[in-house]
Amino acid sequence: MKETFEKLAKKYHGKFTYEDKLNPVFTTSTPGVKHNQQTFKLLFNLKSAEIELYNGMGIINEGRIVSSLMDISEHYDFSISFKDHFSRLFLFGRPFYNIESNNLNVKEFIQGSDSFHELLVLSKKYKFYPDTTGKSSAGFYEITTVYSNLFKERAELLDPLCKFHIDLVNWFQDL
Q: Where on the tree of life does the source sit, at the highest rank (predicted)?
């Protein structure tokens, strides 16, 4: 995982940080127990946007990528959710993802995006279910993707996630 983050930092001219520390676990039955928590972070800029990729491994096995850009004057909130592999058994040919937005341009852009189609393929291949939202908050527009790190191929998904966020940031900034 560390090597993948280093490669992405070089590719996107970003700053990579890594932390590996033992944290105490406070329980009454096992005093003095500690757990290992690894944190990987990559921060890079794209035009006037800031993109942060975070992966935690240990007690917290979650990945997150957040793109922050200046607030957009129009209402472009959206969300993308994926059905898990069990639910997909009952979809019978219907899409295994859902894009919600009141703005049809946002939905059309996402559905036509090559980077989104790459994530669809990887979602099927690795049982990967990221949740993505885009919304205005505190003077910024934030695009956030959250996903689980509980699968072996998690490093293979970092670059496609970055590409998807880069495509979204470029599209929103070109409005």
A: Bacteria
Q: What whole-number distance in Å separates Cα of residue 1 and Cα of residue 30?
A: 30
From the list 164, 163, 158, 168, the residue with the least C-alpha distance to 42 is 158
67 is written with which tokens? 């793109």
pLDDT higher than 60, residue 87 = no
75 has a pLDDT exceeding 80: no
pTM to 2 decimals? Answer: 0.87
Domain boundaries, position 79: 2-173
Residue pair 123/96 in contact (Cβ under 8 Å)? The answer is yes
Helix, strand or coil, per DSSP, at residue 5 = helix
Q: Looking at residue 88, what is its pLDDT?
A: 52
